[in-house]
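Listing 4. Sequential folding, example run.
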Amino acid sequence: MENLLYICERELYRLDMSINFKKSCCMRIGPRCDAVCANITSSTGSVIAWVSEIRYLGVDFSRFRRFKCSIDHAKRSFYKAANSVFGKIGRIA
């Protein structure tokens, strides 16, 4: 996995781009999702963290034996905003 990261870093460096390691993370999905994994380090010495949940574009992905995602947080935020608007309008609409 580190070799793949090194190759990606090298290509991005040639394109004058870089990876933001503060916003990057790893998660394992599958039968061995509970296994402890070694840290992945970049060529600059930054470490990519292993996490149990990732939120990407409003969808939550969880570490589980099967692929599992949830949009509960996005739905909750939408209904919260909608109820706020309806509360301000009242019975006018």
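-- end of first protein; second protein begins --
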Amino acid sequence: MARVSDEAVRRPRGAGAPGTYALTRKDERVSNLLMRAGGLLPTAYAGGAQFFRAQNQAGRVNLDVQRILAQPRGHEDVALQPGDSLEIPEYMPMVRVEGAVNAPGSVRYREGAGLDYYVQNTGGYARNADKGRVSARYANGSAGTVGGFLFFRSAPTPGPGSAVVVPAKPEREPLNVTALLGNVAQIVAATVAIVVIAVR
């Protein structure tokens, strides 16, 4: 017989009764935990849920809580283990834009809007922006980065509670004119010496 540990499965804000729940059977799943917690509050954002597995130092595990709620005991509805935790944030209809933009800040979320919409609403790209490495961090902890091949460009679509990060290009070292002229002079002198030897 497998023994089900009495260790905690934490449920913080976002459900009807947040708190710590002991596992009652070995096949208990995320949907069971949500039912025991009384379901989600109207202010909860299931799309931003983060599931953490302590055993084997697995860390954050991508789970689609919306699909779990729609299809209990489906593929996404994983069996719980001692020490698991599920965090469901409140719905935040904002997208934060940070990094190399002219006016970093938050923009109200608009369904279907792409990266460019949020960048333009924070003043556009700064002169030193690295447009090829822009990324979006989602509320559930996952991330997507701009990609492209030949003339095709793909970009992640931010969701509620996301953060758009525009990195800056690395600064180039200023041109050392004196050193450059010195190197040129050395090359010219060496070339002249070779020509003189060749002519003799």
